[in-house]
Amino acid sequence: MTGTDQSEALRERVADAAEQGEALSITGSGSKHFYGNPVQGSALDIRAHRGIISYEPTELVLTARAGTPIVEIEEALTAEGQRLAFEPPQFNGGGTLGGVVAAGLAGPRRPYGGAVRDMVLGLRLINGRGELMRFGGEVMKNVAGYDVARLNTGALGTLGVITEVSLKVLPAPAARVTLEVEADPTQCHDLSEQWLRNGRPLSGMIHDGERLYARFEGTTSAVDDAVAAIDGKALEPAAADAFWQSIRDQRHAFFAGDEEPLWRISLPPASDPTVYGERFLIDWSGQQLWLRGHPEPHNLRARAAAEGGSATLFRGRIDGVDAFPPLDAVQARLHRNIKKAFDPHGILNPGRLYPDAEVS
Amino acid sequence: MQTHLADFIKDSAAGQEADAILRKCTHCGFCLANCPTYRLLGDELDSPRGRIYQIKQVLEGEAPTESIQLHLDRCLTCRACETTCPSGVEYGRLADLGREIVEEQVPRRGLQRWVRTGLRTVLPRPRLFGTLLTMGRLTRPLVPGPLRKKIRPRRPAPAWPSPSTHSRFVLMLEGCVQPALEPPINPQTARLMDELGIAVKRTTEVSCCGAIDQHLGASEAAKARIRSNIDAWWPHIEAGAEAIVVNASGCGAQVKDYGHLLADDPDYAEKAARVTALAIDPIELLERHADQLAPADDAPRRVAFQTPCTLQHAQKLNGRVDALMARIGFDMTPVPDAHICCGSAGTYSVLQPKMAEQLRTQKLENLNTGEPQVIATANIGCLTHLDEASEIPVRHWLELIKVA
Amino acid sequence: MPAHALFRDEDLRFDVDVDPLIDALRQVLPEEGLIVHEAGLRAYECDGLAPYKQLPRLVVVPETIEQVQTVLRLCHEAGVPVVTRGSGTSLSGGSLPHPQGVLLAMGKFNRIREIDHHRRIARVEPGVRNLAITEAAAPYGLYYAPDPSSQIACSIGGNVGENAGGVHCLKYGLTVHNVLAVKVITMEGELTTIGSESLDSPGLDLLALMHGSEGMLGVIVEVTVKLLPNPLTKQVLMASFADVESGGHAVAGLIARGIIPGGLEMMDGAAIQAAEDFVQAGYDTDAAAILICELDGSEAEVADQLKAVDECLRDHGATRIQVAADDEEKARFWAGRKAAFPAVGRISPDYYCMDGTIPRKQLAYVLRRISEISAAEALETVNVFHAGDGNLHPLILFDGNQPGQLEAAERVGSAILQLCVEVGGTVTGEHGVGVEKINEMCVQFAGAEIEQFHGIKAAFDEKGLLNPGKAIPTLNRCAEFGRLHVHNGELPHPELERL
User: Fold this and answer.
1) CATH of the domain at B41
2) Mean pLDDT, to the nearest integer, of A88-100?
3) Alpha-carbon radius of gyration of chain C
4) Cβ-defined contact of B87 to C51 (cutoff 8 Å)
5) Which residue of A37, A110, A116, A146 to mutate against C (max C Cβ within 10 Å)?
């Protein structure tokens, strides 16, 4: 297959940095540079380490180097009638496989199709000692050793430099449709449940404050049945695809402009998403709320936490406010200990996830 | 499972049977799921697998202890574990054997000993039991707590059918405590048979089936009783009795086991096997006459059926009574966890009152799920045990049907 | 007992006088919650991997979260190891007791705290049986998806500890995909909730890390799972094949057509026979292999898929296809498969169940090698296979009462696991490493990786008191195992000093 293996060069670079105590800021295409807390460190660019290593459609497994553009992976899958279930965002059209896994961000299909971590079968990783290691594998089920592959998914590169990932991939459905439905924003959960329990192949649900958009993907018969059963207006296929991409990649008008911070609030099912502010976009059947404006950060976080959710400062920085909400004392200690176990010198993306966790 | 049976038992017939049973056990733990005591207590020692392990230790030469005795006592011998076991482990047989050895070596103390002896003395003797029950009814307020609840007011019984001229006839085990506790059941069974053209030949010298001795670790006493029952039945069997109808499923399970229990008795092995072959629960006979049956005139139609463990796990007749009743016009209500024991389990409700009550509470909750008007069952033990606490009546299912 | 030592010297460094601990525990536990007499301990000496036995120093059976916290705090202070046990159904010896430690039996934690059908969430205690969750959810038309074959008995806490799979996980995921949160007590006795009812939680994915951690990181005292709506309709069919290889090709054929069945299982001739003896499900006992395939969805979807599956299976040489006539028959088709391991108890006094996962395309080669490996030791193997996800369960039949047979079975097992690694797979798909596969971990992982695992362990449990000697081998163990198992003159981990 294509691409080159730079893993040894990357490993050496990390090993040197470890020796020097030099902080590294791991970068790919830079499409998610805004996400997490700012990092001071020399850039470690992984883009040259790219290429799909193996892809066997009947095994449902794809393995590629971390620097491989996500677009390239999606093209390869599309050619075989398959896809990534978690619909990873391509902010600014960019994104590498390593970045997708390190950030652990998924698109609108996440509640129905699975999260990034749900599809990560294994990965290779350079830890903060400059050791190249392999965890997990290329098989669907694997419980040998701790699940380091999933632990590194969403760890924002604070535990290691991901160099290679094996993902579970799935067949793309035969049919899809998007319906525009008249509904109140508070109805997301109930409608979603009603549809799912009736076997409707729901794969996306957005409420923009005005209207509800529901996507169904599945066999032709299931999609046809959904259209027949649900009172809604079907979008033109091209417009529908463009709509979901604009949500996924945050190119929708709601996300435009950077004068107001963008908050991401993760909520338990059946929460009322309308109580958090005026300018919102509801995703994931009400379980992911995007919020613009200037809410008081501590109150916002307390409110979300009280419900069993959490609020992340997704875009835009606020002085004295970390990107991620604080952890309880036990888990904060576990975070520090785990960080130390992977990166004893604190050189990998220090502070990007939790400033406290980097103290060694 | 690997075994190393001790010298005292390994060459005996019992030892070899136990070894064969133990070796089938793969220690998978499936039995834990359906064990009533494990569900309540959550301790491996109170699970079938844990008890098998404790019995195995004794068979491998460890001295039995009071602790092992306690955990074997807590077992209801409901045999739900046997139904669940994929490997075919005959737990009930192993438990009987284990109890016998433990009983020999761990003496019972004080009150416990007297209660057990008392049960073994009184229950199998219908006249003695009947007399005591009548006295108890008269002096009910004076009887101590746990026993007082067992004393039920007497319900009037229908008349036995008049002697018939039917050419077909069956024997019937009338049981030890049943005639006194629930007088209607036996004559009602005989009347149904009679109306279907089958006479019931009464053998009043037969009363207890031997299960009480058997499960209280007195297998020799049980065998003596079995031999005497066989002797009483034998002339009628030779005269052409079609079957031995046992309308209490607990006793039925025991009679169906006679062949196995006396397999090594040169004088009785063959006869016992014949008795086993003839023993049937009423359902096995009545379901052949389903077209002639209907709900009794005064019977409520919404019925929850409580399948006795001895009917489902021992006799393997699960679902048959429910199916017949539904077919002839009853509205059978759903019963969750129908495979879990009600806590009656022979003498268990007397010996382990706390556990028995907890199990009964759960059972009644499950039986009432579908808001039935009456609970039907097929065993005298379950019937009286449930009826003590049930808000709706509990009846033998034969009392709810008639020949149309 | 197995040929290799269950515990090594370094696993046995906890030689403390436990009498003061016992006295302290007596103050906090219910009367029967503390077992110290040998006859009682004996019943806890093994789990579902019965040939591996070890008496614990004591067994505790707590009733409340506070009691568990106190037990752990006291053990932490005293430096006494703790092994947690649920239903004791582990097939890898995950809950094998530690000779110097406490066995923490969670059987009393068997209450379902909450079924929130509106939000499709169940909150349960860790001793709740897997199947009991589905039973409790059934009145609302919901179920809990992961269904390991032991689901009738295995506990949800153990399912998290092993990241249990099941026969539906290709489509519906493993335990890690279906658990939302766990309440965990650390070895120090502190309580924390990992995960939430939301779809993600801040920070590192500790929830994923807890899955499959084999009781080495904390003690789970509550589990919150998501429930799924029952599929509108299901169909189960059984296809017979004249050889296992054709069955394997048929599976690849289904996936190539974009069909992901709800369940897809294969059994070989001997397994078919044993299971049929137990359930009388109508399995084709003449077939060399059968494939059980479950399709779910709406009526129309299932009908479409059934047609496509039938066509595909016939194209790949299915000799007979039986479609379940009703729900009872569907249940019977599955019952035989789910009871297949212990049902083998009917044809062999003992069996040893392996759990490797392989890339599916290697199936024919691996099965051929398995039969060669077992033939060389004069043992028979029965194969049960999660065909959809490549998880292989060879059952090695032996008789523990015959001298040498257990050791032969272990050699076969070890060779099979190494074969799985050799073809690009793993030594355990869902049963866990436990004590059983701990040596083979040395084949799958390099020294740095193993050290990284130990680092994670220490991050949670600095003194190494939780389930010592399981799941992750020490490098000394690997060095010794390497010396025993030299392949082509190459030693794994040559950097280590040989013992």
Assistant:
1) 1.10.1060.10
2) 97
3) 23
4) no
5) A146
